[in-house]
Amino acid sequence: MSLLHAGVAWFRGDRVVWLIAAVAVPQSLVAAKLLVRAINPGGMLPGAAFVFLLAIALAWLAMLWGLVLLAARVRRATIRLFVLALLALPDIWSVRTLIEDASDALAHPTPDKETGRGYFDDQADRDLVVAIRACNPELQRHGSVCDLDKVAALARAIDVYASGLGGESQMSLALQNGPNPEILRILLRTAKPPAEVLQWVLFKALDLQDLTLLRATLDAGLDPNGLAGSADPVLFVTESHGWDEGIAALLDAGARIDQTDSAGYTVLMRAINERHYDLAALLLARGAAEDRFTSYGTTMETLVAKIPPEDREKMPPSVTALMDRHPPR
Description:
By secondary structure, this protein is mainly alpha-helical. The protein is 62% helix and 0% strand.
């Protein structure tokens, strides 16, 4: 009981008021910042925002120092203990948040591609992150040594499509790493990739116009007649990139030459409409049909009628012959 009496006496003393005031000061600084922001002429706040910030800041300061004044006027230990706890609550919450953030940082360190830490727990996965990073084309130009055999050996021992600590797989990291088409081909050969991975690599092959990467994607299971994340089949996505070699590779892999897109165009019709005459010649040589029409009734004659006369001079002979076979009506 003597300890309890001493505690009650201490809370009734004047020193506890100074403690309460000291706790109120940091909270007052936050309110003061709001007050300065509200009255700062250079801030040019709208009228409603000015009034809102000013009211919040003044109310906050009034509440804080009203509590301090209450503690100074009322010597009851319970009242002063309540005021102290109320003022310390934001600080306690901040400390708790700080501890939680520190715990998260320890549990999930900042990802580091130089060591692989933060991406994966397993050492083999980390080693692969480092090996893939070394094959970044930009780093290679600055002396980084790319060991493809090491990458292949590590990739065979793990699941390159499994998500790591941050939700990224080895394949997704490789796609961000430059990328190096050789690395992507190695990873594709380790196991059958998910459909979304094939789509990512397909679009990377289209961007790079890398024929061997496109063929590796097809070998890994990409459907040459599929949609691959687009409203139109792969053949049309490739045509939109203006990549004739890619079209040929898809046809070699089994893409149907007379399939249609969402508007009913064949690839030959798209090529004529977009004045890709070399591609049109390739499609004609592969036996593309000339008698199809779109869902809006567009025919080959319609498309031929739109070709500028000056284009005839730069057309392959087969496309000129196509024009002669389908004169405008």
